[in-house]
Design goal:
Elements lengths: L6 H5 L30 H4 L15 H11 L9 H4 L2 H12 L10 H12 L3 H15 L9 H13 L9 H10 L12 E4 L4 E3 L7 E6 L5 H12 L1 H8 L3 E7 L4 H6 L9 E5 L2 H5 L9 E5 L5 E3 L4 H8 L1
Parallel strand pairs: 3-4, 4-5
Antiparallel strand pairs: 1-2, 1-5, 3-6, 6-7
Length: 317
């Protein structure tokens, strides 16, 4: 079983109030809830890396956490394959390592990740294991540590590493291309859609101080549950009623007959839209699961990408 990491003990300072601007919703001491891989060796799998001694000159929590993530793996010799190929050992330590990221300066993430990838490249299997857990915890839907911005750092470092061959970089390059689409701060990709009234318009022409973009499927049970959850939220209803928030619910799978049959499933004060094919043709959005929620500002810049309803509510406060 993967254990959480005690940050206050590790950093010797209270870090709880601090967070990363890129992924402040990441909960550092909360794990995915998935079953861990079976340990290859009970003795090895119980091993947690000793924390490096933090220089006394580093006084702030951000500085101390930044130092820890850069030197976290100094005690690991990845050429010792009885340790570096132990999936349970690597997973536990990787979770400990990730739990420090929200508390470190954002600028320290890239060098820390590149340091880890360079060290793990001493053994191809160990490097593959590190990337497996990066994808599991930072990219897979349902992970409470999910943070695409952090995952991008791992993908970029892996692709830049001379250790993997070009074939091994094909899938990471594909994941990186997808992860870079519609990132927070970017202008969301534009597309056309048709409303229930038959009028054609485009995302960028949709009015609203803020816009909640909800990709859904009429046959998706989880989509209907999410719609009900959003509709029941008093703050969201107030923002919609006051004109401060526009909700655009988009079906983009191309089955017009299904969309027409589903009329009435989306609240009447939301825009219920049929997307006209540009998303698939241009590969504009990546939707690993339905529903997929984006929050945009008045300039159609992405504020939140593929976020949970809980994270949406936080952003709307």
């Amino acid at each position: 079983m993967i254990r959480t990491y005690t940050l206050i003990t590790a950093v010797s300072l209270s870090l709880a109030p601090l967070g990363s601007a890129a992924c402040s919703y990441m909960r550092p001491n909360t794990l995915c809830g998935r079953q861990s891989p079976p340990p290859a060796s009970a003795a090895a799998s119980s091993y947690e890396l000793p924390l490096p001694a933090i220089p006394s000159s580093l006084r702030t929590p951000h500085q101390r956490a930044s130092y820890l993530i850069e030197h976290f793996w100094d005690g690991m010799d990845f050429s010792r394959t009885h340790l570096s190929r132990d999936s349970a050992l690597i997973e536990q330590n990787f979770v400990n390592y990730l739990s420090l990221f929200p508390h470190a300066d954002t600028a320290s993430h890239k060098p820390a990740v590149r340091h880890l990838i360079e060290a793990a490249a001493a053994d191809a299997e160990a490097l593959s294991l590190v990337m497996h857990f990066a994808e599991k915890y930072l990219y897979e839907q349902g992970s409470p540590m999910l943070c695409e911005e952090y995952f991008i750092e791992f993908l970029e470092a892996y692709i830049d590493s001379p250790r993997p061959d070009e074939y091994e970089k094909i899938r990471p390059a594909y994941l990186l291309e997808n992860a870079r689409k519609n990132r927070p701060g970017m202008t969301a990709a534009d597309f056309g859609y048709e409303g229930r009234d038959g009028r054609q318009t485009r995302l960028h022409d949709t009015p609203g101080q803020r816009l909640l973009l909800l990709f859904y499927d009429p046959d998706c049970v989880h989509c209907r549950q999410t719609v009900a959850l959003l509709q029941a939220d008093a703050r969201l209803r107030y923002l919609v009623d006051s004109g401060e928030l526009t909700v655009l619910a988009v079906y983009s799978d191309g089955d017009r007959e299904l969309w027409e049959r589903s009329a009435g499933h989306i609240p009447t004060d939301w825009i219920d839209a049929f997307e006209t094919g540009e998303i698939a043709a241009g590969d504009l959005y990546v939707m690993p699961a339905m529903p997929s929620i984006y929050l945009l500002d008045s300039e159609k810049r992405v504020v939140g990408k593929d976020i949970t309803p809980q994270r949406l509510f936080e952003l709307l406060e």
